[in-house]
Structures are given as structure tokens and as C-alpha cells.
Amino acid sequence: MFRPIATQPDRPITIQFESQTIEASRDDTVAAALLRAGILQFRYATAQEPRGPFCMMGTCFDCLVEIDGKPNRQACQTIVRNGMVVRQQPAPVAATPDERAKP
Amino acid sequence: MAGIRKPTATRPVVIIGAGIQGCATAFFLSRRGLPVIVLEKDHVARHASGVNAGGVRRLGRDIVEVPLSLAAMDWWTQIDDLLHIKNGFHRHSYVKLALDDKGVTIATDRLAAMHAAGFTHEVWIDRDQLQTRIPAAVKTAHGGILVEGDGWAIPWQITRAFHDRAVALGADFRMPVAVQGLRRIADHWQVDTDSGMIEADYLVNCAGAWGARVAAMAGDDLPLEAHAPMLVVTDRQPHFLDAVIGIMGATLSFKQLDNGAMVIGGGVRGRAEPATNGTILPPAGLAEFTATALRVFPHLGDIAVLRAWGGIEGYTPDHLPIIGRGSQPGIIHGFGFSAHGFQLGPAVGEALADLTMARQPRVNLDAFAPERFTPAP
Amino acid sequence: MTINHYQVAVIGAGPAGLRAAITAAKAGLTTLLIDDQPAIGGQVYRNLAYNKDAAPAYLGNGYFAGTRLLATFSQFDGVYWPQTTVWQITNDRQIAITRNGSAALVDADHIVIATGAIERAMPVSGWTLPGVMTVGGAQTLLKQAAVGAEDAVFVGNGPLLYLTAAQYIRAGLPVRAVLDTTGPKAWRAAAIHAALALFQPAMLTKGLSWLSTIRRHTRYVTGVTAVRINGDDAATAISFDTAGGPSETIDTAHVFLHQGVIPNINLTMATGLDHVWDRVNHCWRPVVDQTGQSSNPAIYIAGDGGGIAGAAAAALSGAIAAEAIIRRVKPAAAPLIARLGQRLLLWQQGAARPFLDRLYHPDPAFRLPSSDDTIVCRCESVTKADIAASLGDAVTGPNQLKAFCRAGMGRCQGRSCGLIVQEMIANDRRQTMADTGYYRVRPPVKPVTLAELASLDGRWPG
């Protein structure tokens, strides 16, 4: 499990991940905040398998999450904002023609 | 028609270019038992035929192209059996939206001309009918022109399938082989390539954006410009669209693939560098047709574009293809499809095979004659 | 659409980009520095501007050596755009960017691309499981958020791996094991370059000190020949083999992988610059002359993006590139002695590289996927078996493979799978890596939303 090291700086920011409320520092990336909170599974990939951050530098695209309704945002490249709502990015399944997305 | 003989078994037909036109021609000729060699300087479907938007449409054609397009559609409806593939033609409908009054006027005029010429495949649908068919489309659209039974395909899959069937029927594809010169000797042709000389009874020039270069080797000076129409592919979305979408009076082609990704194009041109197979994509050009796409589907703003590309295509001055006999005996031209040759491919292949064998093609090809570019003496 | 114009645009705010931007601006050229992070420093000095006050000693002197460079940035009087993504560079040096949710075009007379390096992929079974990260990723988390994992296993080889394991240990994070994949052949290949390495003694002494820390505080296993990460929804254990030893399994939820870094070539390739296959380092790198000038005379490459040489060499190469540009704009004879001195210093700062590059050359066993069900293309979940089934006469290179399976068609445009796929095809066709070629990388080099892209067009509300 990831944990913080030694002294705790201020964590004045609160974000939401699914049903969890998470405290974060002002300059945390979303990925760092989620990992610190013990979350390892950020999304589901093409074969429905869970994935989490891998490179932490924006080149692997495995840390994708939905942020404030916007899909496929790189958690390691996004700085937290107070009140941010983060959700797991679902697998990129093309639904059947019956399931139409509302505009 | 002096000098044209039915092909004998002595020398093969040499087809230059393994795009859709070349591969389809190879397929039809091989099916008819003729020996065929296809010379391709890169690989099957490397250029326009591998990377176009894949629209399989009768909608929006120049009126003189409609008979050829209708003939091609006969082949498309049986493409799986023809090419031994599955689900080759994603058939549903094509709609060109009229987003504003100008679009409505263009549509009205077009439908009048089509119907007057006896073509009934294009029909008007009004705002309500459009909303029922395409709920995700912008609500302010006035309606559009619909063709039921148009659709889309994966261009490299179809082109490869024509290649595979042609090979199975005996065609000999030689790649990469670049043609460097053409020489008419007595009753046949000599083809100079970077891998040696080949003799041919007939030549079929399906060299796409390089078609004029090849034509010039045979003494035919035909006008052609190379450009790179651009496309993008997006992230996947849950399925919301079956029809292929265009716009009256604007450049757009928009479809959703089975895996949920969207392919957006329409013909905004990037720069082509045929000598190096290079394509240059101006960012402003990419912005132009993606902005147009968002006029139709404003809810897609947050969907990511994953890559852009351009295919090297040949354009004639009147944007109609060059299909017909060259000035010398034994050479047939089939190039210059100006970014709308994919759907025509099966019928063009059949027609080029007919011309090679001195048969009357099913469709009147007068509008595409090379002579239209020859200055009158 | 907004178009700004600069005499020099520098892409990347790591040591190379910083030195290039500072040097160009100081000479009076209008200069723009673009970076995708919120703060300067790149990867190597990530978060240094914040950390220098908190001063965590475990990060080591190498990290804090960057403090002086970062401090000189306070005198930079050019324009600095953080959190800005470059997604295309055109032939005539228009740079397409996104920032604050919309796109813009920047015109530059000269461009310095200083986008650095990325980790070489290490496709061991289970490498896509949550809990598995690159060593670089673990180090970034440590620098940026002071967050680390307990009982992690480090796997692979190379300076970054030993440094990060040592930093972990000094930070009080117990490390379960370090599994070193360096083989005996590598020592033999590197030995003849060992003398050169003595010209860069700091590099050697640092390395020895890291290894000493590792040996004293954790289990250090050498000669590892195979590795498999186990788990269903997340990593739970790692199994490994050594030459002539029994297989072993260690329970762990965190595995950190590393087998070297390679130039990040997606932007340079999409820009159409010439690249060459580097046989020693088993990677592609842009073709550059000794000032960093690429095949486009107005575009320069500085730092690890032009060839891996480390942070100190990167900073110097940034200065050299900027000075070459300055000479193009304001031709003036720079003193020959000074330029020779720079070249010598640049050489010295990379003197240990021939030795280290050969010692830590990635073994084929770890460059290629270990079993049939190992994922190769992470983005599209394409396995070794999927790719093997597609290989054949029609697949003459990585671009032809895309007609048969989705490898390389995902968002990362080959950053993870590109070299793996290239080598699988090269082996299948018994041809060289150079002849096999690489994916055709296209803009946008990083994904851009439809709204961002459309915002370049005057008709779309941005």
C-alpha cells in the first residue's frame, strides 16, 4: 500500500472518488492523491481488466479517470481542485445499437 | 478501335497500382482467366485506398457518376460472398444534413436535378424525420437528404480482400516494384521497373495520385494534382450513430465504427508529397472539419482525437475520374478519383476489365474519357 | 485562433529546456518556454522548486544539484507557459498547443525540442496489473507527493533503479527485494569501456554508494533471468528465476520495473525529423549534429531526447543548442576555446555512458514479452499471442501490423509497445531493427479533444 512519508503537510483540498472523500495537498496530482488514499484501480481497459497509474509522467495513459464529467483525463497530469469529482473510467465498450447515449 | 485485339495467352495484363481500382481490376480479370501482374511501388492499399473515410455511398455524387455508383452498389450488396469476407459492408443509410437555409436550398436544387434525371435514391427527410433517425444530431437542423442502404466499409480490409481473392485466382502481385518507363513495341508493351523489364499485352493504369506520371510514360499528358484529404479518429463512445453523416454545402464525413470510435473526414486537404509518400497536415485544416462535426454533434466536445492522417489522392480539374483508353493501343487508364473513388471501386474494376478485354462496359463511361483533357486540334 | 510569434520556442522545462530558454532570452531573443507540468524541472528535478524548502534528505544530492539551475530561471525574461501540451509541430515551425481547454498556434523561427526520455517498456507477465509501476513513476510519486510503498520489489537494472531503491530505503520505506537482471554477458561487453568511465568518477561513486545502500538494507538478487507478476485484479506476488537457481516467489503488492530510459521520440517523429536506429542503446533517436541541429535546420534537440546522457549533459546541451541558434540570428564569432571547452565538458559528463549503456543494455529476454498471454500493446490489451498470430508475409513492418490487430492504434501511439512490436517483427522476418522501422507517428502527439481542436477554427466558440 502506498503511504505518505514522515510529516504531513496541509491537506486543505477535498476531492471525491466514487463514494470516497479524499484529502489532498494543493499541488497533488489526482493520481498521487488517489494512490495515497490506497486506491490502485483507476479504470478498466479494453479487455475489461483493471488498470492503475504506471508511468506517472503522462506517457502510458493507464491512469485515465473521469474528472468532473469529462472522460479519459490523465490523473497523473491533472492537479487536484477542491470539490473535484473523480470516477473510474469504464472500459471502452461499444454498447449495442439499442443503448443510445443521450446528447 | 484499330489495334485493339482480344487478349491472347502470350503476355499478361500488367496493372500498375494496388489500390482499390487496381486490386478490383486484378480480381475481375483473374476471375475471367486472364494472366495478371500487378506492380505496386509500396504495398496493397498503402495510399488513398487504405486510409480514406470508407464511405460506401451513392449520395452526393456528381450526376454523371451516378450510373457507375449504382452499378458499384450492386457489387457492394454481395461483397461478402464476392470476396469471402464477413461483414464487409456496414449497410444502413447516409444522410447529408441541411443545417441552415442555405443547406435547404442546395438540397432542394439537387433533389430536383436528381429526380428529373430519373434517379430516385436520394430523398428529402424533414426535421422530425431526421430527429427520429439521428437523435444525437443538433436539434436546429432543418432536415436532410437521405439514401437508404448506403453505408461504410473499412477501406484497407476491402482492398486487401480484392487482392487476396485476385491472388487466389492466379494474379501475381509484385511489391515493392516501381514502374520507371513504358514502351510500345510492335503489338505489345515493355514495362521498365526497378526490378527489371516485363512485357505486357495490356496495361491498366490504376496508379492513383501517380496516375498522370504513369500516363505520361505512355505519351498521355493528363492533368492531375496530388493532395492529402485529412481524417481523424477519436476515442470510443457508446454507440449512438448508425448512419453516415455529411452536410449540404460543407465538408464533412462522420461515422461511428463498431468499436465505438468515430472517423471524421470529408475532404479538407492537407499537402501531399508524392515523391516521398509524405503528407502534411495543417492544424487549421484539422480544426476546420472538427468544428463542422461539432455543429452536428455538439455533445461530443470532450471526446479526444487520437490521431490524424491524410491519404495521397489524385484530383482532376473537374473532379471526375479518368476512365478509358489511352491514345496508344493497349493502355487503359483508371485514376483521378478525386477523393471519391472507393465506393466506385468494384464497378470500376469490372469496367477496366471489360475495356481490357474489348467488351462493352455495363455503364456509359463517356463522361470520364481521357480525351476530354486533350486540346482539340 | 491566436498566433503568437517568437524567435525561439523551447519545448520542455527540464534541465536542457531551462538552459536553452535562459540562454536564448539572455541573448535578447524573444523566447517562449512551453512545458506540460505546472512547475519547472522536468522529470529529473520534478517538484524541486517545492521540495528544496521541505528538504527531504532521502532524495539525495543529485536531485538538489538542480537547485542552482532552477534558481537561475528567476532571471528568465521570456514567456513561460506551464500546463501546456504541444500536440503538433508543422514543417514551417508552427507549434500547435492546448492550454486552458483551448488550442492555439505559435509561430517560431527556431524550436528547441527538449522533451527528454521515457522508460523503456519491460513486458513481463502481469506488468499491467494495478500496483505495478515503472521505477521512474515510483520516484516521481516520491518527489512530487512524498508518497511511497512499503515492501515493494524493484526489478530490472540501470542507474535510475538503484538510485530510487536507495532513496526509498533512506526515506524509511522498507524494500522487499531488488531483483537485478544484469547478465554476465553485459559485464563482458562493458568491461572494455570501464576505463572511460573513470573520467566521470562522480557517476561511478554515486552508483557504488546506491548499490551499497541496497546491499545493506534489502535482499539484492543478481543474475535474474525471468520474472512473472501474479495477481488477478492487482499484483499480489512476483516469481523469478536466476541462472541455475530455483524459482522463487515473493509476496508483494508493488513491483517497480526499469530497464533504462530511451529518447521520447513521438514529437520528433511526428514532426518528420530524420531518426536513426541506435544499436548500442537499442532505441531510436533523432539525427542531430554536435550542436543538436536536426534534419530541419531550424529545429534543435537538446537533452535526453537526442540521446541519453543524463541531467548535467542535458543542461549543457541546452546551452549549446541555444548558442547555435543565437549564432544563426546574430552571427558573431564565439570564441573557439569556449566552444571546445563546452564540447569537452559535454563529453566528460557522458564519459561513463559507453560503459553504463553496455552494462545495462536490456536483455532480449526482458525486451520481449515472456509468455503468450503477456500484454504487449497496453492501450488495446493486445497480447503476444495476438501479434504472433498476425505476423506473416503481409506484415513487413509495424505499420502493416495495424491492418491485422490493434497494436499501436491506442492513445499512446506506441510509447509502450513500439519497440516491442518492432523487435517481434524483426525477429519474425529475420531482418535488422533498422530495416524494420517504427510506427508512423501522427499528430496529435497527445490526444486533443474535439472542442479544443475546433477552437482553432474561427467559427467555433473556444
Describe the structure.
With 103 residues, chain A is mainly beta. Chain A has 1 helix and 8 strands; from the N terminus they run βββαβββββ. Chain B is α+β, with helices and mostly antiparallel strands. Chain B is built from 10 helices and 21 strands. In chain B, strands 3, 4, 5, 6, 12, 13, 14, 15, 16, 17, 18 and 19 form a 12-stranded mixed sheet that branches. Chain B has a 6-stranded mixed sheet with strand order 7-2-1-11-21-20, with helices on both faces. A 3-stranded antiparallel sheet of chain B has the order 8-9-10, with no helix packed on it. In chain B, α1 packs across α10 and α3 packs across α10. Chain B starts with 12 loop residues before the first strand and ends in a 21-residue tail after the last helix. With 462 residues, chain C is α/β, with parallel strands linked by helices. Chains in contact: A-B, A-C, B-C. Chains A and C meet through β1, α1 and β5 of A and β8, α5 and β9 of C.
List keywords for this structure.
heterotrimer; A: 103 residues; mainly beta; five-stranded mixed β-sheet; two-stranded antiparallel sheet; 8 strands; disordered C terminus; C: 462 residues; five-stranded parallel β-sheet; 19 helices; 23 strands; 23% strand
Structure in a nutshell:
The complex is a heterotrimer of chains A (103), B (377) and C (462). Helices cover 7% and strands 29% of the residues of chain A.
Q: How would the blueprint of this fold be written?
A:
The complex is a heterotrimer of chains A (103), B (377) and C (462).
Chain A: E1 2-4, E2 13-17, E3 20-24, H1 30-36, E4 43-44, E5 50-51, E6 64-67, E7 70-74, E8 85-88
Parallel strand pairs in A: 2-8
Antiparallel strand pairs in A: 2-3, 4-5, 6-7, 6-8
Chain B: E1 13-16, H1 20-31, E2 36-39, H2 48-51, E3 55-56, H3 66-76, H4 79-83, E4 90-98, H5 101-116, E5 123-126, H6 127-133, E6 143-152, H7 155-168, E7 172-174, E8 179-185, E9 188-193, E10 196-200, E11 202-205, H8 211-217, E12 225-236, E13 244-247, E14 250-256, E15 261-265, E16 269-273, E17 278-280, H9 283-296, E18 304-310, E19 313-315, E20 322-325, E21 331-335, H10 345-356
Chain C: E1 3-11, H1 15-26, E2 31-34, H2 48-54, H3 61-64, H4 66-72, E3 79-81, E4 85-89, E5 94-99, E6 102-113, E7 117-119, E8 132-134, H5 135-145, E9 147-149, E10 152-157, H6 159-170, E11 175-180, H7 184-191, H8 194-197, H9 201-217, E12 219-221, E13 224-230, E14 237-242, E15 248-251, E16 255-259, E17 261-263, H10 266-270, E18 275-278, E19 283-286, E20 299-301, H11 311-329, H12 336-349, H13 353-359, H14 364-367, E21 375-377, E22 382-383, H15 384-390, H16 398-401, H17 418-429, H18 433-436, E23 448-449, H19 450-454
Parallel strand pairs in C: 1-2, 1-6, 2-3, 6-20, 8-16, 10-11, 10-16, 11-12
Antiparallel strand pairs in C: 4-5, 5-6, 7-17, 13-14, 14-15, 18-19, 21-22
Helix pairs in contact in C: 1-4, 1-11, 5-6, 6-9, 7-13, 11-12
